[in-house]
Design goal:
This protein is mostly beta strands. The protein is built from 2 helices and 12 strands, in the order βββββββαβαββββ. β4 and β5 form a beta hairpin. The protein is globular.
């Protein structure tokens, strides 16, 4: 069985659950600096958050100059994952909402679907395929070669967390090259996470 992430408007606006778009969260009264791209130094766009056993993993990616800031790489500074403890939470905003925020929010329900892998489960799911936002845990279905990143703390291969689709609406989709897939990894020991995409 594969855990598919399915778009569900009833799950929008939940601070401590998986969602895409909307606003990121932080622990109440904590200081959180909005991540900036290493290449262009502008604020990254918030993509969404994935709930795991080590916290909420917030994904940010530069979309200011697509293709020029190495935003597909887990290590070049064009994207960033911040892990937030799933405690008392509040939303926070970028300096520039047009740059930092997507024009949508997608809530998520997790549906276990029969299949040996993500592609098979995706085919077996009976609903609208555009409503599938990705999968949770299991094994990644690589478009290209295996690019599992190593943790910067322990130098071990990281745990696969989620495979992500661009989104159901091309006007508000995440930009993974037009037909790409995003991949989120983390390290339970180091409490770190990394993101990359392929197309």
């Amino acid at each position: 069985m594969i855990k598919l992430l399915i778009n569900d408007s009833k799950q929008k606006g939940l601070l401590n659950e998986t969602s895409f778009g909307g606003l990121p969260v932080k622990v109440i009264n904590s200081i959180m600096e909005w991540p900036k791209c290493k290449s262009c130094t502008s604020e990254m766009k918030y993509q969404g958050k994935i709930k795991t056993n080590i916290g909420l993993e917030l994904i940010f990616m530069c979309e200011n100059d697509p293709g020029m800031c190495d935003e597909w790489s887990p290590d070049e500074g064009g994207n960033k994952v911040i892990i937030v403890n799933n405690e008392s939470l509040e939303y926070f905003n970028p300096e520039n909402k047009e740059i930092g925020l997507r024009e949508t929010e997608y809530g998520v329900k997790i549906i276990e679907t029969a299949g040996e892998n993500y592609d098979e489960a995706r085919e077996n799911w009976k609903g609208n395929k555009r409503e599938i936002l990705g999968s949770l845990f299991g094994e990644p279905e690589w478009i290209q070669n295996d690019e599992t990143p190593n943790c910067d703390c322990c130098n071990k291969g990281m745990r696969f967390v989620s495979q992500l689709e661009e989104g159901p609406d091309h006007k508000t989709a995440m930009n993974f090259g037009g037909a790409g897939v995003g991949y989120l990894f983390d390290c339970e020991e180091g409490k770190t996470a990394k993101f990359l995409w392929q197309c």
